[in-house]
């Protein structure tokens, strides 16, 4: 780092929810009401926008491959799926993490902690 001064102001709240899903539970997890939860929280798909990042966003990612990086994170290396959620307010992010855990348990295991 140089001599720049970085702001410590919180601009957005977000979470990466990493899921490990046993093969026999994948259909059940795929059919869960996660899209309805996202709609209720007014989260818009990050990939469906044409005018920049949505203020309240969600992205569904499937791991095809992973390689270790400079920062060790074994949980994300083993995750089958990652859901990214971000908002200007902490409430929707926390509620999404709590509810997605409830919806997907016990079929899937959340491998990273939800935000505080």
Describe the SSE topology:
Blueprint: E1 13-20, H1 26-30, H2 34-40, E2 44-45, E3 56-62, H3 74-78, E4 81-87, H4 90-104, E5 109-110
Parallel strand pairs: 2-3
Antiparallel strand pairs: 1-4, 1-5, 3-4
Determine the N-to-C terminus distance.
28 Å
Q: What do the pLDDT scores average to?
A: 85
Number of domains: 1
- Compute the number of strand runs: 5
Output the helix-strand order. EHHEEHEHE
Q: What class do helices, strands and sheet pairing give?
A: alpha+beta
Give the percentage of residues in beta strands.
Answer: 15-25%
Number of helices: 4
The biggest beta sheet, please? 5 strands, mixed
Which stretches are low in confidence, meaning pLDDT under 50 for 5 or more residues running?
Answer: none
C-alpha geometry: globular
Round the Cα radius of gyration to an integer and report it.
15 Å
Main sheet: which strands, in order across?
Answer: 2-3-4-1-5
Helix content: 25-40%
Notable characteristics:
116 residues; alpha+beta; 5-stranded mixed β-sheet; 4 helices; 5 strands; 22% strand
Question: Summary?
Answer:
It contains four helices and five strands; from the N terminus they run βααββαβαβ. The chain is of the alpha+beta class and 116 residues long.
């Amino acid at each position: 780092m140089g001599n720049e001064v970085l702001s410590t102001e919180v601009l957005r709240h977000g979470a990466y929810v990493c899921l490990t899903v046993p093969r026999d539970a994948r259909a059940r997890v795929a059919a869960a009401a996660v899209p309805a939860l996202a709609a209720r929280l007014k989260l818009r798909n990050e990939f469906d926008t044409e005018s920049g990042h949505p203020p309240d966003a969600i992205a569904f990612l499937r791991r095809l491959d992973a390689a270790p990086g400079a920062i060790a994170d074994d949980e994300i290396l083993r995750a089958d799926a990652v859901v990214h959620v971000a908002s200007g307010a902490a409430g929707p992010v926390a509620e999404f993490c709590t509810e997605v855990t409830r919806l997907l348990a016990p079929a899937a295991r959340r491998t990273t902690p939800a935000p505080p």
